[in-house]
Structures are given as C-alpha cells and as structure tokens.
Design a protein that fits this description.
The protein has 220 residues and is mainly alpha-helical. Helix content is 70%, strand content 5%. Helix 1 packs antiparallel against helix 2 and helix 1 packs parallel to helix 3. The longest helix has 30 residues. It is globular and about 70 Å long.
Length: 220
C-alpha cells in the first residue's frame, strides 16, 4: 500500500468518526459508558464532553504516532518495502480505532453492537495480517520483533521473523475464533501471550548458537 493512499484513507476514516460523533452527540447519555469488561458489561463511565472528544482523538493519535515514529527513523532504513508495510499497518490500526469509537457511541445510545466480539475479532485479524507480512520486513528500527539479538544479526532477524510470522498468525486466529466461539479467556489469552513471546526467546537461542559457532558475536 502506498503511503499517500494510506494517509488519505486514514484521514477519511478519522473525519467520518468525528462527523458521526458530532451528529450523535445530542443522543448520548451523560455520563456515557466508555469501558466494558470481558463479559460485555459496562464498568467505566466518563462525562459526555470528555468521552466524545477522547474517541476520535484516540484514532487520530494512533495515526500521528505512526507518522512520527517513521519520520524519526534513520533514513537508511526507510526502504520502499518498509514504507508500504508501515502504510498498511497504519490503515489497519487507525481503522480499528475508528471502528471501536463508532461502536462505543452506538453502545452508549443503547444499541447492541457485540463490541467485545468485534474487539477480539479485530485484534485477531490484525495479528493475522501482521503475521502474514512481517517475514518480509528487513531489519529496521521501527517494525518487527526488535530484540537485542535480532538487531545484532540479519540472520537472527530473518529466522526469528519467519517463525514469529507463523506464531502471530496462529495467535490471531485464536482471538478471531474467540469472537464467535467464546473460548475460555483464562486459557486463550495466556496461550496468545506465550505464542507472541516465543519469538523473543527463539531470537536469543539463534544468537547464542551463532555466537558459539563463530566464537564471537554474530555481527562480527
């Protein structure tokens, strides 16, 4: 995805979220619910004025963070491939936050949007996309599984991301399935966390193996 197109899509989504927030403002309760627990029950409220400002602002903040971090990244790492990947993740994250903002507004007005299912399903899909694409990302200071060991060696980076991509996809599928099957979160979430931590440990194991064979740090 081209960065210019990603910026356009992100800004349009944010603008639509702001427009809906303003249009629905008179119908929103005060205070308005802004947080739900895992069972889908409201467990947090906020004054309406703050709530309606926070929702689109969160999506805009996500967009700005993606742009700022990329802007501050070293020039030598800003390859076309990295820019395309960053653009894709930017649209995914901004779109997800805008979707959540709109659904929170609808929930506040009494509509059942199955918000908890959308959150699990959305995060799951994002992880699947990340897993499917992360193996193509070359070593950089922004995207990827950035451990001290992956940053030391291209080989450690590549092998870690090949495994990490598969495990991220598996973790994403578990969360996506949970949106429909309602698996026990006491089991699902720890499994997801372990799947996402395995690449970190794996990067250290690869590093140690390369270091022992070379008799020094893999980076030379």
């Amino acid at each position: 995805m081209k960065p210019v197109f990603a910026d356009l899509v992100s800004l349009v989504l944010i603008a639509l979220t702001v427009a809906l927030t303003l249009a629905w403002y008179p119908q929103l309760p005060d205070p308005m619910p802004i947080h739900w627990n895992a069972a889908g029950e409201v467990d947090g409220y906020m004054p309406k004025a703050w709530g309606v400002a926070m929702l689109p602002a969160t999506a805009a903040f996500m967009f700005l963070v993606m742009k700022l971090v990329l802007l501050l990244s070293p020039k030598q790492h800003k390859t076309d491939e990295l820019l395309r990947m960053t653009a894709l993740f930017q649209v995914l994250l901004t779109g997800f936050m805008c979707t959540i903002a709109v659904l929170v507004l609808l929930e506040s007005m009494g509509h059942d949007t199955m918000l908890d299912r959308v959150i699990f399903g959305g995060i799951g899909l994002i992880l699947v996309v990340v897993g499917a694409t992360i193996g193509k990302v070359r070593k950089n200071f922004f995207l990827g599984i950035r451990t001290p060991w992956t940053m030391w060696s291209d080989e450690v980076w590549d092998r870690t991301h090949r495994l990490g991509g598969k495990l991220f996809m598996l973790a994403g599928l578990l969360l996506f399935i949970n949106a429909f099957v309602r698996l026990d979160l006491r089991l699902t979430l720890p499994v997801v966390v372990v799947l996402m931590l395995i690449p970190v440990v794996y990067s250290w194991i690869i590093y140690r193996g390369l270091r022992d064979r070379a008799g020094k740090d893999p980076a030379g």
